[in-house]
Amino acid sequence: MKLTLVAPATDVSRRTGRRPKGTPFFHYYKLGIATLAGATPPDIEVEAVDEMVDLWDPRTHPTDGVAISALTALAPRAYQLARTLRERGIPVILGGMHPTFLPEEAGRHADAVVTGAGELVWEQVCRDWQRGALKPVYAACQNDTSIHVPPARRDIFRNPFYPPLDIIQFSRGCVHRCRFCSVNAFFRGRYHYRPIAEVRAELAGCRRKHLMVADDNLYGDRAYCLEVLGALAPLGRYLGIQGTVDMAFDGEVMAAARAAKVGAVFVGIESVVTESLREADKLHNQIERYAEAIASFHRHGIFVEGGLMFGFDHDEPDVFRRTLDFVDRIDLDVAQVAIVTPMPGTRLFAELDAAGRLTDRDWAHYDCNNVVYRPARMTQLELLNGVEWFRREFYRRRAIARRAWKGRRWFDLTTLATQAALNLGFRRNHQLGLDYPP
Ligand code: SF4
């Protein structure tokens, strides 16, 4: 029997022509799908369809069953696919963040819904599917701190448009409690980590040139973070990681990151307004130390991609200009810019919903590019236009050139090239309307 694992894509980012849309940098394969493939019993033939890079027709695609993983913005597409496939009599299983938070809604579109970390119950799901006896809901519960994850099957992604980058995950979840964060809601505030030996074995099968460590917050457990970096150092592969701003002040961790050849870090800066950070419960960020943190990353040869969010209740209409001046001053290398979006399952969603401030329940708009609630101190249009202005200004050619010129002081050639390419990639995606592709 053949099982198809699908990563849906939005109307704007879905591949419809000869080549995928936008910048190859953002076309990396989906680790969640690869992990499910790894957990699939070997007697089942498994394939992946990634709608960002693969062309397929759900009306005719030969398969015996389909599993679709969906974030909130992708739920409408997932439901549309499910409808088409089920009309053909093909069973559909839905999982991922959105079905986990809204299993009843997802259940109306699927034969089965998997909530939580799917690989924990995947073997049972597969066996039930083979027998034609899928249950409506499979709830995967992960209570232990230490977890085992089957090795991901990266071989199922054959598309030549993927960049030479492997994705690996050591830990999941986060120790912080940011109000807007779906990761925190999905893992119910828990931090889980895999035995290092298990990940080391999986790394042996990663053949691509670069490595992205996709842990939600690698610095969630300092001792574990040091172990991970120690395990990565002998590989000598160019690395990207995700952490928090405060890791920059930890000399030992920064030295280990340098030894492991980390060249890029993603950190959630979110806001340069103290009250907005407080409102978001992002209490580990200290605005007065941002400059020092970025300087520390730079000193260790690491460029910084900062997540920025606009639309907090304390954001005034001048927040865009203030933020641009600020991030220029502190030499932020790359910005991933989002509109505050209350994802279902988060505290932010519950609070805005209770206050009657949600103005849009079309999940396709929950993509961090639309305003789906009433902001407190500006109009929806001001917020939308402000974000558009910020993205345009931050990614002006002259600004990109200035950042690359400054970068030559801190970065080796690979890091400098990656920093510049990422800047140009964000610029191009913005021009194509592909900002923040979910
Ligand atoms: S630090 Fe990042 S991953 Fe952790 S809760 Fe906050 S936003 Fe989520």
Could you describe the 3D structure shown?
The protein has 16 helices and 14 strands. The mean pLDDT is 95. The protein is α/β, with parallel strands linked by helices. The strands form three sheets. It has a six-stranded parallel sheet, sandwiched between helices. It folds into two domains: 2-139, Cobalamin-binding domain (Rossmann fold, 3-Layer(aba) Sandwich), CATH 3.40.50; 164-431, pyruvate-formate lyase- activating enzyme (Alpha-Beta Horseshoe), CATH 3.80.30.20. The chain is 35% helix and 16% strand. The longest helix has 19 residues, at 413-431. Bound molecules: iron/sulfur cluster.
List the helices and strands and how they pair.
Elements lengths: L1 E6 L23 H9 L5 E6 L14 E5 L5 H13 L4 E4 L1 H5 L1 H5 L4 E4 L6 H9 L6 E3 L25 E4 L2 E3 L8 H5 L4 E3 L2 H8 L6 E4 L8 H11 L5 E6 L7 H9 L2 E9 L3 H6 L10 H10 L3 E8 L8 H11 L4 E6 L7 H8 L25 H15 L2 H11 L5 H19 L7
Parallel strand pairs: 1-2, 1-3, 3-4, 4-5, 5-6, 7-10, 10-11, 11-12, 12-13, 13-14
Antiparallel strand pairs: 8-9
Helix pairs in contact: 8-9, 12-14, 15-16
The structure holds iron/sulfur cluster.
